[in-house]
Specification:
Number of domains: 3
Number of helices: 7
Radius of gyration: 21 Å
Number of strands: 15
Strand content: 25-35%
Length: about 260
């Protein structure tokens, strides 16, 4: 199957086509030169698209996704030639920006500071914010730049140092467990339970394009939600349908949801 046909089977819009073309180019580069090749950082939705592309192309091995730690959200896709079980060099950079002051920096503060330095989002992985520091997963080409140029975020002065992969400070996830019953497993019903809002409000947000189902925008309130599915509502956060239980005596479906705080 040729490149354009493969991309057409997976892409949903022009941006998807450009992304998938770059991924195939990296794969071709690895095969042509017989050296590892890696993409920029991919969002969860982009990872799903990349996986679908590789499945369609019949590529079953010789690649992996890597975000620096097991639960990473943003990851690069690394293609490895037959001779390499692992990349010969660390494919990621890990940096810690320490800060002190009355105001704790947020993910938005850190990301805004990096964007202000002209760093492209695809060159940045997860940003892990703790009490007095933020650990950054980034492209190795940014290592020297960060150590030399990144000294401030908002009003806070930063001290930046390189750390190892094993030294990343991954904050514990804060999760609220929601147990409820729904009349059906429609997206609007599940979103209503997950984010404590009326079903009508959930339907409005879905129609406005503010709701993602498994990292893909969904405009249909009646779309079925499967066990394990991830719901993201812009401005409200993320939740996962962890369990679908039996029907109650009133014919409603019991569900358990984890909402990430």
């Amino acid at each position: 199957m040729d490149k354009n046909t493969l991309i057409a089977r997976v892409a949903q819009d022009g941006e998807d086509r450009l992304l998938l073309a770059r991924i195939l180019d990296k794969y071709s580069q690895m095969e042509r030169r017989s050296v590892p090749a890696a993409t920029g950082f991919l969002s969860p939705r982009e990872q799903l698209l990349a996986q679908a592309l590789l499945n369609s192309a019949g590529v079953r091995e010789g690649y992996r996704f890597d975000g620096g730690y097991e639960a990473a959200e943003r990851k690069i896709l690394i293609f490895l030639p037959d001779w390499a079980q692992e990349p010969p060099e660390e494919p990621l950079a890990f940096l810690r920006a320490s800060f002190r002051g009355p105001d704790r920096l947020t993910h938005r503060d850190i990301l805004g500071s990096l964007m202000g330095l002209g760093v492209a989002r695809e060159r940045l992985g997860d940003i892990l914010v703790s009490e007095e520091s933020a650990d950054i997963v980034a492209a190795p080409s940014l290592r020297a730049f960060f150590l030399r140029e990144w000294s401030q975020a908002g009003r806070a002065r930063l001290t930046v140092e390189e750390v190892g992969r094993e030294d990343l400070r991954v904050p514990d996830l804060q999760v609220k467990t929601v147990r409820d019953t729904v009349s059906s497993l429609r997206l609007d019903a599940v979103a209503s339970s997950a984010f404590s809002m009326s079903r009508g409000r959930a339907a409005e947000l879905i129609a406005a394009g503010r709701v993602n189902l498994d990292h893909v925008p969904c405009l249909k309130g009646d779309r079925p939600v499967a066990e394990g599915a991830v719901l993201t509502v812009r401005g409200l956060g993320k939740a996962r349908l962890v369990q679908v239980g039996p029907l109650t005596k009133k014919g409603r479906t019991a569900i358990t949801i984890e909402r990430y705080l």
